# Entry
Amino acid sequence: MENKTEKITLNVQVRKELGKKVKQMRKNGVIPANVSGGADKPVAISVVLKDFTPVYKAAGETGIVYVEIEGKSVPTLIRDVERHPVDGSILHIDFRQINLHKKIETEVPVQVEGESIAVNQLGGVMLTQTDRLMVEALPANIPAHIVVDLSKITELGQEIKVSDLPTSSEYVIKEDPERVIISVVEHKEESTEVQSEKTETEIIGAVEEGAEGEAAAEGGEAAASDEKSAPAEEKKE
# Structure
């Protein structure tokens, strides 16, 4: 878990620009944002991008950020960072106001560490079933991430569930104990090739059968034609 003893602060301004005006803000390197979750109504703010970037890198979505606004220092978590779908630029930021003395529930990212024999030696494929877990803790005790030790998987078909994770005195994982986080399965490429060959053989067989059927049909039509022409020939005689 990262060291969170250093206080992280971010100076912001109350925002009056709304609607289409925020587009010009972004061009000037200022990002629209909101602070919500406290007893007061949500507050619209603006954040200078160059100030926010190092703060987000240090705090992520689990570290406490003290938003300095109009002489007040408001403890928050970065709830969401909305990005442009094409260039990835930041469009909007949501800050969640918190009570430092009250436990909260929030999602924490999963970090996979270690190496698995089942992957490296047995050719298995690692599947990540979830990359975030809900935890409950005091804001100061929220972990930066939850470590999942991949080395515990030594055979194909094994899984790491929530119940397999070590417990902590600082936080509680609020998930179904049977929820699967990581699994390692057998590589299926060979069976796919076999299936492909089987399908190709079936197609070739179907084409050959079709050709034989056409030939038989042509033979039948010829025979029928001969039968029809036979009486005509007798009449000529």
Remarks:
- The helical segments are 22-27, 49-59, 117-120, 189-236.
- Residues 189-236 form the longest helix (48 residues).
- The chain has three domains: 8-98, 105-185, 188-231.
- The longest strand covers residues 72-83.
